[in-house]
C-alpha cells in the first residue's frame, strides 16, 4: 500500500466494521497485519494483471505482423466453386481459405490431376483440376496366347485364337487325333472326365475332346479334365486368380476372401466398403473405418490429464480448454489433439507418402514437424513438403495383419520460442492381403 492516505482510510474503514459488529476496534498491530495482507493480495493481482497484459500485447503484435504480410484480399473471401469431374465425385463444400476438396472417380476410371486441392489465402486453389479417364484394362495385355483384347467399362473381354479358351484365353483346347484299333466300349464317366468324340475314318477311330479336357493317356476314348489352376497358376498374363483358384470340370473359377467381391473380369477381388454400405454394427458414438477386407469401429475420447483438459470440437478433434493463470505445464500441453485412421494393404511398396499435416494459417515465423511417439514409429519418417506442410513417409513394406500407431507433432515457433503444439494421433490398419 504505497499511499499513506489510503492506509489511514482503510484503517478507519476496518475499525468501523468492528464497531458495527459489536466488537472492539482492533489494535494497531492487528491493523498493520491486515494492511500487510491486503498489500500482498494487491501485489499478486497486479503481477497477474501485468502478465496478462504482456501476453496479450505479444499476441496482438504477432497478429499485426501477420496481417501486414498478408496480400490484399478481395471482398469475396472464398475460393471459386470447383466442378465435379464427369464419372467422379467431389468431397468438400467449404470454400474458405485453408479448406480442402477431395476428388474420387467411379469404378473403371482413373484420376488425372490433383486428388486434393486446398483453398489458399490468395483465394485460388492449389493443384490442377482433375478429370476421370476410363481405365484401359487392355494396356496390361490381360489376354494370353495372342488373344485380342476389347476394353470395356470396368472390365475387358478377350477374343481367343483357335486352340485357346477362357476369360483370358488361358485354357488350351487341344484336339487330339488318336488312331484306335478295336476301341473298347465307353463306360459312365466321373465328374471330371468326359467320353471322347470318336468317329471311324477309313477303318480307324479318331477321337477328340471338348475344350478344357484332354485324351487320357491310358484310355484314348476318355477325356480327362485339365486342371488350369495348377497348369496356369502364373501364366504370361499374370496369376490366373488374384486370391483362390477353384478347378471345375472343363474350366475354373476364382473366389475371394470375406470382405471382398469378385470383379466383373472373374479374376480379381474388390474390397467391400462396409461403412458406406451400412454393413457394419458401429454405434452412434463410434466412427466406422473401412479397411481392406473388413471394418473397424473406433471411439474418439479426448485426453484428460492433470496439466490440461480438453473439449471435443468435432468427431475427430479435441481443443485444449483455457489454462489457469500461471500454469506453465498447461500452457506447454498440446493446443489440439486430432485423430486420424488409415487403411493399407499388406507389403505395400515403399517408400511412399501416406499422410500429410499442415497449417492453414500461421501466426509464428516457422513450423516444425516430427514423429513424436508411438510404438510403430520405426516404420515411418517425417519430411517437409513446403513451408506449411509435412509429409509422413512409409519407409518400408509392412506385413499384415497388424495395427500401427504413432503420434505426429506440428510445433509453431516465433523466433525459436514455442507458440503452440498440435498433435495428431494416427492409427493405420494393415490388411492381411496384398489387395
From TrEMBL:
UniProt domain Sushi: residue ranges: 77-134
GO MF terms, alphabetically ordered: calcium ion binding
SMART domains (UniProt xref): CCP (SM00032), EGF (SM00181), EGF_CA (SM00179)
Keyword list, A-Z: Calcium, Disulfide bond, EGF-like domain, Extracellular matrix, Glycoprotein, Repeat, Secreted, Signal, Sushi
Compartments (UniProt record): Secreted, Extracellular space, Extracellular matrix
Domain EGF-like as annotated: residue spans: 134-170, 225-270
InterPro entries: cEGF, EGF, EGF-like_Ca-bd_dom, EGF-like_CS, EGF-type_Asp/Asn_hydroxyl_site, EGF_Ca-bd_CS, Fibulin_C, Sushi/SCR/CCP_sf
Disulphides: 105-132, 160-169
Major localization class: secreted
Signal peptide as annotated in the record: 1-22
Family from the record: Belongs to the fibulin family.
Name of the protein in question: Fibulin-7
Organism: Danio rerio (Zebrafish)
Amino acid at each position: 500500500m504505497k499511499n499513506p492516505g489510503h492506509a489511514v482510510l482503510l484503517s478507519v474503514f476496518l475499525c468501523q466494521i468492528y464497531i458495527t459488529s459489536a466488537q472492539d476496534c482492533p489494535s494497531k498491530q492487528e491493523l498493520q497485519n491486515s494492511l500487510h495482507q491486503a498489500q500482498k493480495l494487491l501485489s499478486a493481482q497486479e503481477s497477474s494483471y501485468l502478465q496478462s497484459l504482456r501476453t496479450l500485447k505479444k499476441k496482438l503484435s504477432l497478429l499485426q505482423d501477420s496481417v501486414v504480410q498478408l496480400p490484399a484480399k478481395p471482398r469475396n473471401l472464398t475460393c471459386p466453386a470447383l466442378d465435379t469431374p464427369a464419372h467422379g465425385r467431389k468431397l468438400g463444400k467449404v470454400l474458405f481459405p485453408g479448406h480442402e476438396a477431395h476428388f474420387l472417380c467411379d469404378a473403371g476410371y482413373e484420376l488425372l490431376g490433383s486428388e486434393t486441392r486446398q483453398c489458399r489465402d490468395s483465394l485460388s486453389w492449389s493443384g490442377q483440376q482433375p478429370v476421370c479417364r476410363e481405365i484401359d484394362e487392355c494396356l496390361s495385355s490381360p489376354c494370353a496366347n495372342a488373344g485380342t483384347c476389347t476394353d470395356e467399362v470396368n472390365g475387358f473381354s478377350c477374343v481367343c485364337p483357335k486352340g485357346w479358351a477362357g476369360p483370358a484365353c488361358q485354357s488350351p483346347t487341344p484336339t487330339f487325333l488318336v488312331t484306335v484299333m478295336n476301341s473298347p466300349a465307353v463306360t459312365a464317366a466321373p465328374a471330371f472326365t468326359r467320353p471322347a468324340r470318336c468317329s471311324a475314318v477309313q477303318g480307324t477311330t479318331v477321337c477328340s475332346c471338348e475344350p478344357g479336357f484332354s485324351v487320357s493317356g491310358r484310355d484314348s476314348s476318355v477325356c480327362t479334365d485339365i486342371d488350369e489352376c495348377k497348369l496356369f497358376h502364373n501364366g504370361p498374363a499374370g496369376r490366373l486368380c488374384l486370391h483362390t483358384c477353384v478347378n471345375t470340370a472343363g474350366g475354373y473359377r476364382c473366389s475371394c476372401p470375406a470382405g471382398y467381391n469378385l470383379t466383373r473380369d472373374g479374376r480379381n477381388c474388390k474390397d467391400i466398403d462396409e461403412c458406406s454400405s451400412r454393413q457394419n454394427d458401429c454405434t452412434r458414438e463410434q466412427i466406422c473405418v473401412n479397411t481392406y477386407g473388413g471394418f473397424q469401429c473406433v471411439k474418439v475420447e479426448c485426453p484428460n490429464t492433470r496439466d490440461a483438459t480438453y473439449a471435443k470440437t468435432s468427431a475427430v478433434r479435441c481443443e485444449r480448454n483455457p489454462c489457469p493463470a500461471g500454469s506453465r505445464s498447461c500452457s506447454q500441453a498440446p493446443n489440439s489433439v486430432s485423430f486420424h485412421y488409415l487403411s493399407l494393404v499388406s507389403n505395400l511398396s515403399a517408400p511412399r507418402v501416406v499422410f500429410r499435416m499442415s497449417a492453414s494459417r500461421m501466426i509464428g515465423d516457422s513450423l516444425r514437424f516430427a514423429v513424436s511417439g508411438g510404438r510403430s514409429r520405426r516404420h515411418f519418417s517425417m519430411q517437409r513438403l513446403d513451408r506449411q506442410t509435412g509429409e509422413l513417409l512409409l519407409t518400408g513394406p509392412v506385413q499384415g495383419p497388424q495395427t500401427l500407431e504413432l503420434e505426429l507433432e506440428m510445433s509453431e515457433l516465433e523466433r525459436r520460442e514455442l507458440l503452440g503444439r498440435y498433435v495428431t494421433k494416427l492409427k493405420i490398419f494393415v490388411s492381411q492381403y496384398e489387395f
